[in-house]
């Protein structure tokens, strides 16, 4: 991984304001990191992070436009009151962006990688490949029952990121069979050969189960990006030719 | 026409045995304002009373006074998004438990008695397992899940719920959630709609609770319940995790069960759960009663709970 993929907590100001999307009562910030036509790439950040201010170098070869979403309680998206986070809700955040952008490839760091997997299972026709990358919140709170615990965050922390997001999403349980259900949905209903690409070193139980289920080997990010860009290119070529 | 509808609305604002709370106050739960209601003397022994999914504290108007009149300070509240409490941006199980503990903190930091109906019982089970020093005795009114909880939030899973269409439908609802609002009607119409979830409760009672659980605007009455709640859901939580911990339940429990299955019920019977109860759990079965045991049989339910708390 290159350093450029790790967002700094104090970033230089962005060159253009984000596009705001509405998720129920909350406003989500969608940043455009690269202009252009063609098949879009959507970046999802890790837990406690925010979208990068500039395009990370490792995505420079992507042929289409590149967008990055700030999850609820992160970056320039709204801070909800009183917590209540779940990865399913973050999936709905990403789905709002998907509705706005249309079919796209999704690459997520940490918890964003888990969300990319969930979304690939939920919207197998619209997510044209999900890429799981290392980053904060990739593991979650383990795969099985734990002693009941009621996280009470320190609300004196500066926000964003929302201290409730950190407290609740660092401990959410991710049963391997639950993640596998989404991987199976993606595999069964996507027309891509490999709808999930694992481009990370960390192997939480949910990810190990997904890799086992779909017989996935880890791949380099470049390779995953090329594969999805090529699949999208093949898909849109007839339209371009007719134009 | 409008006058007669209004007079019907006014006419059902009372119900035999129902009594409004003696006091009402607010609790700030991490920035959300929760409506809190009390019956009984302020210096009496406190008792936390927690409602179930899609309900609100005033559904205890018939039951809570029976406990209060026996010498308790009965404290209930509306969950986030329910009744008069704030609608939240996000809903999940742990936030509901944290809200409940904020209300408990507002009552006492000493260990206290607790009664929970339906989801309120399960929230208490988790809070008691996490913080056993905060509670003395716990009464569950059909508040223990076994196999399949009804999917009213995004943090629970039924085996059949995790299918592509169910997930897509939930996401579609999230995409539209900003446009959702409760359908207006007369109080009688709201009561008739609610009867689908509460088929065993009388129309007069449902009109009574509609008069507190709904508010009127130019178009009519609408339930106060956040429209974002109740569009189904799924998630990685397994009921089995709660059941498997019951043998180690840390305080005495009274588990009350009805005999009749209902749309809002947990589908958990005393027989299902008997193998999991420790010796400190008392089980009380009531015949010919559904999920809303304390509404169908307030006297018997209160009598049994008072006996348990007085022991």
TrEMBL record, chain B:
Protein name per the record: Alpha/beta fold hydrolase
InterPro entries (alphabetical): AB_hydrolase_1, AB_hydrolase_fold, Carboxylesterase_BioH, Epox_hydrolase-like
Keywords: Hydrolase
Any Pfam family: Abhydrolase_6
Domain AB hydrolase-1: 47-303
GO molecular function: hydrolase activity
Organism placement in taxonomy: Bacteria, Pseudomonadati, Pseudomonadota, Betaproteobacteria, Burkholderiales
Domain of life of the native organism: Bacteria
